[in-house]
């Protein structure tokens, strides 16, 4: 099935073949991919060639390797636009996925310096901190820590965020409607604590984000720090000249 005479390298032809199997739905997320030896025999190519094809697909996140178990077709990633201000709950609803949260921390706290500066909290002043593990269809996707203005948001301390959306509670109970936000993201190696929560290896690539959310008057009421799984998310934006 691979063409020896083609100027296209054999490893690249095998890579295309595997991607075609996945696109056609013949190999499904979670399916085990044939071993290097099996693919080598099937296509009459060397194991080095097979290894190169599989290695590139692993690096691209198309396949996953599980130590001692083999190579598997990766779960499809969530494609998340970066232009609309939405909540995790809304994002999952739009994909017909079930969102849920584990509340890891909800209390009044003295915030880190970057939060205090951004929210205009005086030295020694407090914020409400809400740290959650966010899950989609029961799979851990992100760890989010939100710092909220205090005492304005004090009533959220009594809410059950394993069931309710923060943005819904802020809008309906406090009249704080998220209207604008600025957000930055960078790739980092996943710290140990977040790795355990997200079920990824410590040091694997994750997207570290900070968001500053403003209300209609332009006041920032929320500073968020999040770690999103690099193997489950693609962030994209559309660009135009001007
Ligand atoms: C999103 C936001 C987060 C916000 C949360 C509210 C990012 C990258 N994401 O996950 O800032 O706090 O939505 O979600 O910052 P909720 O209304 O579903 O609780």
Describe, in plain words, how this protein is organized in 3D.
With 242 residues, the chain is α+β, with helices and mostly antiparallel strands. It contains seven helices and eleven strands. The protein has helices spanning 10-23, 36-43, 47-59, 88-94, 113-119, 166-174, 192-198, and strands at residues 32-33, 63-66, 70-73, 78-81, 99-109, 127-136, 139-149, 180-189, 205-214, 220-229, 233-236. Strands 5-6-7-10-9-8 form a six-stranded antiparallel sheet. Strands 1-3-2 form a three-stranded antiparallel sheet. The chain has a two-stranded parallel sheet with strand order 4-11. Strand 2 and strand 3 (70-73) form a beta hairpin. Helix 1 (10-23) crosses helix 3 (47-59). It is elongated. 22% of the residues are buried. The model has no long low-confidence stretch (mean pLDDT 95).
Total beta-strand segments: 11
Report the helical percentage: 25-40%
Uncertain runs are none
Strand fraction:
25-35%
Sheet bearing the most strands, described? 6 strands, antiparallel
Run of helices and strands: HEHHEEEHEHEEHEHEEE
What hetero molecules are in the model?
A: 2-acetamido-2-deoxy-6-O-phosphono-alpha-D-glucopyranose
Radius of gyration: 22 Å
What is the straight-line distance between the termini? 47 Å
In which order are the strands of the major sheet placed? Answer: 5-6-7-10-9-8
> DSSP helix count?
7
Sum up the overall morphology in one term: elongated
Summed over residues and divided by their number, the pLDDT gives a mean of 95
Helix/strand structural class:
alpha+beta
């Amino acid at each position: 099935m691979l063409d020896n005479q083609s100027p296209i390298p054999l490893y690249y032809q095998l890579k295309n073949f595997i991607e075609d199997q996945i696109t056609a739905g013949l190999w499904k997320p979670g399916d085990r991919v044939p071993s290097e030896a099996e693919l080598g025999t099937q296509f009459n190519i060397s194991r080095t060639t097979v290894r190169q094809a599989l290695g590139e697909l692993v690096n691209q996140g198309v396949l996953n390797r599980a130590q001692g178990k083999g190579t598997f077709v990766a779960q499809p990633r969530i494609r998340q636009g970066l232009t609309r201000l939405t909540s995790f709950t809304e994002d999952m609803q739009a994909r017909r996925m079930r969102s849920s949260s584990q509340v890891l921390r909800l209390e009044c706290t003295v915030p880190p310096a970057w939060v205090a500066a951004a929210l205009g909290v005086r030295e020694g002043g407090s914020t409400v901190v809400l740290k959650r593990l966010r899950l989609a269809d029961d799979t851990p996707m992100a760890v989010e820590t939100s710092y909220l203005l205090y005492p304005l948001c004090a009533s959220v301390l009594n809410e059950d965020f394993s069931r309710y959306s923060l943005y819904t509670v802020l809008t309906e109970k406090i009249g704080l409607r998220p209207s604008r936000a600025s957000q930055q993201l960078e790739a980092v190696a996943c710290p140990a604590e977040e790795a355990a929560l997200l079920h990824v290896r410590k040091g694997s690539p994750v997207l570290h984000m900070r968001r500053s959310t403003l209300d209609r008057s332009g006041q920032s009421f929320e500073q968020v720090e999040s770690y999103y799984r690099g193997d489950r998310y693609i962030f994209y934006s559309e660009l135009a000249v001007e």
